[in-house]
Specification:
By secondary structure, this protein is of the alpha/beta class. It has helices spanning about 15-20, 35-45, 55-60, 70-80, 105-110, 115-120, 140-150; strands at about 5-10, 25-30, 45-50, 65, 100-105, 125-130, 135. It folds into two domains: about 5-90; about 95-135, no CATH class. Helices cover about 40% and strands about 15% of the residues.
């Protein structure tokens, strides 16, 4: 079963980024009006995530009014309320900046686009199909992975906790 598609309002930019790290298709616009957000969520069959009670009241049945204040607790709340089953195979498959799909790219194709140390030591590279941003498992990768596993309780323990 495919995970739900999500749409975060301007108050949930941090949550949107972390949902993308988790591999969830999550749109976000800091400048969209309430009407635009509701229309996008309906048109694209997305769950609208907001902290705005008035927006939640007029958004329809596929809306979650997020109560938690921290991103960690917001992740847990979304997981519980939508009954999400974390899939570590999906982690790091979406661009954290634009939500595009990340595609593997050969080291040789990006060697001149990244710092020399990264070009010789990174184990893999991905590029966003939309904004073309490059990704590799740097020092932050392990911290993000540990945070995802802790927040989403993925049930997997490979010693990286």
């Amino acid at each position: 079963m495919e995970p739900p598609r999500l749409c975060c309002d301007a108050m949930l930019g941090g949550l949107a980024r972390w949902l993308r790290f988790a591999g969830l298709d999550t749109t976000f616009s800091a400048n969209a009006s309430d009407a635009e957000l509701v229309a996008e969520a309906r048109r694209e069959e997305r769950w609208l995530l907001t902290r705005d009670r008035r927006l939640a009241a007029k958004a329809g049945p596929r809306v979650l009014c997020i109560q938690a204040l921290t991103v960690r607790e917001q992740l847990r709340e979304v997981q519980a309320r939508l009954r999400l089953v974390p899939d570590p195979a999906r982690f790091f498959t979406r661009c954290s900046r634009c939500n595009g799909v990340l595609e593997p790219v050969d080291r040789e194709r990006v060697a001149t686009l990244v710092p020399p140390f990264v070009a010789t030591h990174a184990s893999s590279f991905s590029r966003c199909a939309d904004c073309r941003r490059l990704y590799w498992p740097g020092t932050h990768h392990g911290r993000i992975l540990a945070q995802l596993r802790e927040s989403l309780d993925s049930g997997e323990d490979d010693g990286e906790r």
